[in-house]
Amino acid sequence: MNAVNLLGFDLEGLAAFCEQLGEKRFRATQLFRWIHQKGAADFDQMSDLAKSLREKLRDKAHIAALPVISEHVSTDGTIKWLFDVGAGNAVEAVFIPEDDRGTLCVSSQAGCAVGCRFCSTGHQGFSRNLETWEILAQLWYAEHSLRLRTQSTERQITNVVMMGMGEPLQNYAALVPALKVMLDDHGYGLSRRRVTVSTSGVVPMIDRLRDDCPVALAVSLHAPNDPLRDQLVPLNKKYPIAELLDSCNRYLDKAPRDFITFEYCMLDGVNDSPEQAEELVALLRGKVSCKLNLIPFNPFPASGLKRSSRERVMAFAEVLIKAGLVTTVRKTRGDDIDAACGQLAGEVQDRTRAHERMVRAPVRVHRRGTVVPAKETSRP
Ligand code: SAH
Ligand code: SF4
């Protein structure tokens, strides 16, 4: 297999690659459209490219997706794919259909180094950064498999949120070209308002994103003060709340939306009291143009934490709304397939260590620690 995977190039990078092959730069646009808009993986399909170019491409490049370990379809239409990224690591992407949009939640790293207390990806530790092609392969596969599934040539994914596994702003170099492909009219043509980077608050990188590729920004806040946030999101010790909010205000100068979304995961008895809601109001009102998104905690055993009751979430939301902060409570989707926050991939990781068969997903784990589809192998 040839080394260069064309899924890893933004249009500029592909143009440079075409030049290296002795081709005109505009050929890159045709090639790019074949790959991302038509989902082609075979150069012979690309009928408007000269045969000589197709031969050169076959020689020097390939277009390869990530192996799919499993696909789970929820009764509510949510679809979760688990992709093999090698060496026993798996990442996930989740498609969430709604009446007026289709959102894909994409992973940026295998594991995560931030280590938030309430996050199962954080509990797994950090394995590695995904490469640009691995970030885009999730979108490429999801978009084109959804088109096949629905027998449609229409765009299926209208929104992308970088809210899968990993901290996207700790994988900045790979993230930005991937965002550019999502935004490019010759790629997925998504508007900047419909591509969201979610971050636990890597302040210098929020500033860089503002200059390099401003898209919608979601910031995982989860606490109204530094002592509590230090415990929940350890990165807060490095970039405390005041610095984080300053960077949000700088971001707003160039952001495609005139607000920042603050995510707040509701943890029973930890961050969900009416007093803490008041503290949050004092922190944010009049200081940053924002919307609040309250997320019901998705429990997992190792966290030792519990989801706030519906009543407590509603009481918390009411304080914020009465104070004039726009607040939504996130609907849980795909509960029957654990379509949230690294849970399925978490199982793969744990099982990898335990050398046991996975129960929920149709995969098994090799003695060397690699994850392989169950049907292709037998138990040792
Ligand atoms: N690393 C980035 C993006 C990935 S996490 C970030 O932290 O923002 C995406 C969102 O899911 C974040 O808001 C995160 O705090 C939240 N999250 C993580 N684990 C969760 C859980 N168990 N239940 C509910 N939300 C969770
Ligand atoms: Fe990493 Fe985000 Fe999970 Fe925190 S919530 S550990 S930053 S993926």
What does this structure look like?
There is one protein chain. The chain has 380 residues and is an alpha/beta fold. It has 2 domains: 4-64, Orthogonal Bundle (DNA polymerase, domain 1), CATH 1.10.150.530; 68-355, TIM Barrel, CATH 3.20.20.70. The chain is 35% helix and 21% strand. Helix 7 links the parallel strand 10 and strand 11 (216-220). Helix 1 packs across helix 2, helix 5 runs parallel beside helix 6 (172-183) and helix 7 (203-212) packs parallel to helix 9 (241-252). The protein starts with a strand and ends in a 7-residue tail after the last strand. S-adenosyl-L-homocysteine binds at residues 118-120, 163, 167, 198-200, 220, 263, 265, 295, 297-298, 341.
Outline of the structure:
The chain has 380 residues and is an alpha/beta fold.
Key words describing this protein structure:
380 residues, alpha/beta, DNA polymerase, domain 1, TIM Barrel, ten-stranded mixed sheet, two-stranded parallel ribbon, 16 strands, disordered C terminus, binds S-adenosyl-L-homocysteine, binds iron/sulfur cluster
